[in-house]
Each structure stands twice: as structure tokens, then as C-alpha cells.
Amino acid sequence: MSQKPEVRTRIAPSPTGDPHIGTAYMLLFNYAFAKSQRGKVVLRIEDTDQARCTPESETAILKSLGWLGIQWDEGPDVGGPAGPYRQSERTDLYRSHCQILMDQGHAYRCFCTPEELAARRQERREQKQSTGYDGFCAELPSETVQANLDEAKPFVIRMRTPKSSECLLQDMLRGEIAIPWENVDDQVLLKSDGFPTYHLANVVDDHLMSITHIFRGEEWISSAPKHKLLYQYFGWQMPQLCHLPLLRNPDKSKLSKRKNPTSILYYRQAGFLPEALVNYLGLMGYTLPDEREMFTLQEMVETFDLKRIRLGGPIFDVQKLTWLNGRYIREKHSVDQLLARLTEWFLNDETWKKILPLIQPRAEKLTEILPRPAFFFADMVEYSPENLVPKSYKFQAETLPADLDQEPDPGLMTARLLRIVQWEMEKIRSWKAEALQQCFVNVAEKEGLKLRDVVKPFFLAISGSPTSTPLFESMAILGSDMTRRRIQHALDKLAETGHVISKKKEKALQEHYQKTYGPNI
RNA sequence: GGCGCUAUCGUCUAGCCUGGUCCAGGACGCCGCCCUCUCACGGCGGAAACAGGAGUUCAAAUCUCCUUAGCGCUACCA
Predict the structure, then answer these.
(1) Percentage of residues of chain A with pLDDT beyond 70
(2) CATH of domain A385-517
(3) Cβ within 7 Å of strand B: which of A 376-405?
(4) A262 touches strand B (CB under 7 A)
(5) Residue at minimal CA–C1' distance from B7?
(6) Least confident of A120-124, A199-203, A423-427
(7) How far is the CA of A327 from the C1' of B35 (A)?
(8) Which ipTM score applies to this complex?
(9) Is 0.80 topped by the overall pTM?
């Protein structure tokens, strides 16, 4: 009798931004399952989107997942026999596999431009038809293809999908799922820049890396038929699928950074312990057989049972996470251990060397040194929201910003500024004091205000005090997650005191913003 | 709009597969009391849920169907 193959799972983050808490959630379940079967976990970087992926993001993901203490067995940082583990280093593989599909007639070139696609999609949307690819280039005569090729027209490669019947998928948790083929369009496999899409890359890699089980978010269910088809085209065995529920915002939508802090790094900075965060994530959609709420990663692995996964999307409740974190601090640490945790967190010389240069020029007694920078070590800072709003704003320019027809109420103006800066900050690639300064100078100029007036509410929002260490340096030290968090908090506080940007005004503001600042990111 | 997934206290969940032991158990949060030099911790107690409707059955939170709602997907993003 043949031996059962080793269980291999994978986590495949895309380095397009902050390391997301959902990635940690998926890693946890991939890990728990693999280890409960004495298997291995592979970490693979899915950086096929040249426009959005950055090396900074990859570093942050590796660092933050490492911080959580969930150790993968193979990956770009630790190596392994199935490498390279970065998709951008495997492009030849995808191209050659794509060629196989071309040769077999399972894939074809598509010369439609993004504009043409968008226009036809729009048309079909208006006719209330499905908006997937319409197969325009599926049966192009070879002369046309050759002509386009001779003209060096850019093209993508699409897979052929059946037009009738349905695709039967087997999900480890949900059983059989049937999806009609007419709802599956001819997905792009190879983009015009020569990079693969997720669909091609993940199938090729999962096979080549001998992945046996895929634990991923349920958002992937609807594209699973494409994957199954690719496995069939290649003649490979498809890994077992297990779609996990999605973490949700309090309003039940998919967890997103607009509504919740989603960056793992934020939770670290806000004072959560990795083992508490992992423990809490384990509580989401899952219970140990004895229903205990406090457990280690090891205990979760030892008792792991697929049957105990619930399919309803759990709401990520920071309050309960906070309670659990408190138990870890109180019950699992001696004073010495706690001190060590504090040091490995941020309370160490390295941090002080960044902060002290900002305090020193303003200090007259040593006793003044500790209270000022306390906000660096805080999650939220406290202040009265009315202090965020100055008595008036003095416009320097002749004309008001386009979304305003009259001199605005200062409360609204403050909210406006916070919003605009929020949007502008999204564009900052390298989170440094200079870049932040430039961001604010730019906003002041475009809004027709003095820099000092723009900056004023931010001092309070960031530090909780109108007089503080220099704003841009402080924000730089605080980091992007925490800075954004505090600005959002200020916006929320303003809203509580009645300074809400109405839907209508928000729309006008966005128009003004895009016209004067360029498109949102 | 189309397709798919999901559905127990406000939230995380137990129970569902293998109907009766469930006028539904635990936890967070909330409220009250106790402990106490304050606060917190801790202890005790309380309010709080089987989405709706049909069916199967002696019996349904548990099985079946329909409805409703929520979410997801519907890109040369993953």
C-alpha cells in the first residue's frame, strides 16, 4: 500500500500594502491543519502585480508574520526545496506552462485593449447582462492574429472555459458546490506585461510545490472553477479546497482598513501581544473541543479538528481581543517577564534615541522628559474634540477651494483637512518626516491656507496636546499605521460633536480633491 | 442584475452530523451586588438569541423545502 503523501499547505500573501490581519488568520489555519497532520507550511510571495507590489511591503509582511510566532517551513526567507518562493522569480515557469495550454488550444491571445473591454463591459452592464469577458477574441482567424502580431499589438492570453453545464467543486467544509460554467468567463492567464495572473500562478505553483490542501478565504470560491479547469488542462491532481469564512468589520462587511485597523503592525504597536492576537484569531470561527478560550498555538495544533470550524463570517471584535490580551499580561507574566516584553516592544534605547532629539531642545528639567512623549507609547490619545476646531480659518488665496461655495464652518473645514490629508498620506511611499512635510505644505498651498493653520488640529490628533514635539518627525516615529489611526479617531470625534461631512459634501470634496490633487489611491 | 456562500444573545460561540437530556450552555461587552485605601483584577447575580414560514415526526435549534437578510465574486488585483 502506498504511503499517504505529506500534507503541505501554503500561505500566499501579496505584498501590495500593509500586512493584513486576514493574512495572519489564513496562516494560522493553514498552520494548524498542516501541523496537526505532521505536515509543512509554505510561504509564497505573490508579487505578480507589478504596479502595486513593493519590496517594503514584502519585508513588512515577513516581519509581521514572524512577529506572530507562527513559523512556516519554506519561504523566500528560509529557503526550501521547491523554491524560488517569490512569483516574480518564477515567470519563466508560468510562460512555459501557458505555452502548453496554447499548444493544446486551451488558451488564446486576446488583443482587446483595456478601454475596449471597459466600454463593452459598461454596455453589457446597462443591458443587465453579465459583465465577464465576452469572448471577442476567442475565435479570431489565424490571419487576424498574425496581422495583430505583425503590428506588435499588445495582447494577453486567456483560458478557454466551457459555455454550458456546471462545475462541481468539492469543499472540505461545505461539501459539493455547483457553479454554472456560463458564469465563468475566459480569465486572463498571462497579462500583457508578461506576468501571470493569480489564477495561473497559483495553480502552477501549488502543483510544483506539491501543495495538498488549500485553506483560503471564501472570496475565492467563485474563481475555483477556473483553477479546477487549469488542473484538468495540465492533467494534474487538484489540492483539496477549504474555504474559510472572511473576517468582518462591525458592520459585517469584509474586514477593511477604512473601517478598522487591519495592519498586523498596528496591533503590535497598539500594545497587543502576538500570542494573544494569535489566540484571538483562533477563536474566530473555531472552538477547541473543550471550549476553552485561552490556548497556545501548540494546543490549537494538538486538538485541531476541521469539524469545529464554523462557516459564518466572524466580526473582529477589538474589545474581546483586548480582554484576552489583558489576561495574557496579568496571568502569564512575572514583573521581570513583563519588563522584558516592554523592552522588546518599543520601550528601549532605540526608540529613545529617536525621541530624545525632539525633546532635548525643549527641556529644562529631566522631569519634563517623560510626560511629553507619552503619546508615542499610547494607542489612542485623549482630548476634547472641540479643541480640534480653531475659531476660524484665514484663507490666503483669492478663491476658495472648488467644493466650497462660501467660507466654511471651521468644524467642517477641520474635518475636510483631516480627510484630505488622509487621502494624501495614502500616496506616501516612504514614511519619512520630509515626505510628510511635503504632504502638508502641498495641502496648505492647494487649500489656500497657512501651513500653521493646517497643522494645528493634527498636533492634537497625534499627540493629544496642542504643544508637542515637531509634528512631522513625530508622525515619522509613530509610523503610518498609528498616525492614520489617530487621524481617523479625530475624524470620528469630530463626527460625534456634529461636524460630519455629509454624503453630498463628501462627494463634492472628493471631486475637488481629484481635480486638484490627482486621483485617490 | 447574475452566480455562490452563510444564518443561535449586540459580539465570539456550544449544541446541529447521530432529532427528545435545551422554556438553549459558556465568554466579551452592559447592568447590579460583594471584596477593597482609589482604580483595576477577582467573586456572585441579572437583562440578552434558535431570521420567518411550510413540511417530516409522537417530538425539531437540530432533518427537508421555500422566503428573507447579510456577505462575497462578477479586473490585464490578489
Answers:
(1) 98
(2) 1.10.10.350
(3) none
(4) no
(5) A312
(6) A120-124
(7) 20
(8) 0.95
(9) yes
